[in-house]
Predict the 3D structure of the following.
Amino acid sequence: MRLPINIEELLSGRAVEGDRIEYKTGWNPDAIYRTICAFANDFDETGGGYIVVGVKEENGHAIRPVIGIDPNQIEPIEKDMVGYNNLIRPYYQPRLYIEEVDGKTILVIKVSPGERRPYKVPDQITAKQKAYNYYIRYNSSSIVPKDEYERELINLANRMPFDDRGNDDIKLTDISPLLLHDYLVKVKSSLADISLTEHMEDVLEQMDLLEAVPEGWRIKNVAAMMFSERPDRFFRQAQIEIVLFPEGREKNPNNLIEVEPIRGSVPQMIEKTLSYLNINIIKKQIIKPKDRAQSITFFNYPYQALEEAVVNSLYHRDWTIREPVEITVEPERISILSFSGPNHTIPMEAVQKGISLRSRRYRNRRLGEFLKELDLTEGRATGIPTIQDELKDNGSPQATIETDEERTYFLIDIPCHPDFIKEQFFLNKDVVKDVVKDVVKELSERQKIILDFISENPALTAKEMSEKAGIVPRTIQRDLAELQTKGIIIREGGRKEGKWVIINKKE
C-alpha cells in the first residue's frame, strides 16, 4: 500500500499538526496501541493521526536522518498487528505503510477516525492479563479519559461527521480522475503514479474515502466535495453566490449585479471565487510620502483576508443545509454568509469579539485535512486571527462576526480600507466620460461595465461579456437591449461578424 500523502511533508509537520503525529524509535506495541485507540476515538474530531516508527523526535519534531528499523522486523510486526487489532473493542484495523527515508526503512501507521467509536484497548496489549480502557488524545499524549471526558466520549457513539459518512448516491463515475490526479500531484503523493482509469477504487480505498458496508463499500461525502465536478448534485445549493450593490444594499437595493453562481469541487469554488474577487474587486493604492523613500502600499481588501474567509465559509459550513454561501459586495464592506453557525462549544463572547474561535468539534474534519494539504487552510482555529492580522497590517478596520443564539448562520463583515470608500464604485471614468452626462446618471453600474467592454473590444458578444464579468447572460442581454433603447449603442453587422458602437457621445 502507498501512503496517501508525501512522507517528507508528513515528517516536516507541514501537512499534519504535531499533536496528530507520534514518533517511536522502535516497535513498542503496548504504547503504540494505546495511541492507535486514542486516534481512532478522535475525541476532538481532528481527523485521527499517524504513528511513525523508526524516528527519534525532539520537542515534537522528527530528527533527521531517521534511525529506521530492521527490515527483517517488518513481517513479524505485520503478523503481530493482525492479532493486536482483534483485541481492540470493537474491532478496528489501522493502515500500515512501509516507507524509505534517508536510506532507512520506517513504518507509518495511519489511524483514521473509527466508524464504531468509542474504542477500548488493553493497557498492555502484550500482557496475559488484560485490563481494558478507553483512550483519547490530550495535547500530544494518549490518556485514559475521566469523568465528563469519558461521558462525552461515550456520547460520540455512532456520531460520524457528515463529510466522513458514506453516500449511496455517489458512484465511481462521479469522481473526476483529473481532479483526483491533480490533487495527488500537488500533495506529492506516490498514488499519483497509479492509473485512475483502471484503479480508481483502489486509490479511494487507500485514501480512506470508502466506507465499508455489508454490500461492499460506499464512497464518502468528502470524496465528492473534493473530487467531483458537480458536488451540488449530492449537496443541494453547494455553490457560492456573489451579489454586488454599487450604491449599497440599503441605499439602493434595486441596483445590483448578480454574478453567475460559482459551482464545482471545493478547491474549484475557492479558486474561481478568489479569482473573481481579485480581478473585479481588489484594488491597490501606493502612496509616496515626502519625508521617506519607501512607498506605502495598501489595498481596499487584502487578498489573504478574503482567501481565509472564503475557505472558511466552505470548510465550516453545514453541507446538509440547502443554502449557498452568499458573498455581498458593497462600497463599505464585503459580507460572507454561510450556514450554519459556529459550534456551540465556542462562547458567544468569543464570537462577538471576533478574535479566535477555537472549537472542540470540527464539523468537516476530513475536508479540513484535504484543504490543509493543499495549503488552503491552517486549521486549528487560525482562520479568524489570520483575517484580523491581515486587515491590521493593511491599515483596515477589524472584521466583525455575527450569529444568533441557535447558531444557524455565520456572517463575517470585512470592512473596506477607509481611503477607498469615497471612490466611485465600479466606474471606469475613461470610458464613460464620453457619454452625455444626463444619460450617465440613468445608467446602472452593470451598464457602465458593458460600455467599458465595448470600448475595449466592440466585437464582444453578450456571451463573452457574461463570461468576462461573471454576470448571468440574461442580465447582460437585458442591459444591452436597454442601452440600445436609450440610443447609447447600436449593433452594426450580423451576430457573428458585427460589432457594437457607442453613438451617444458629446459633440
User: Anything to note?
Assistant: DSSP finds 18 helices and 23 strands in the chain.
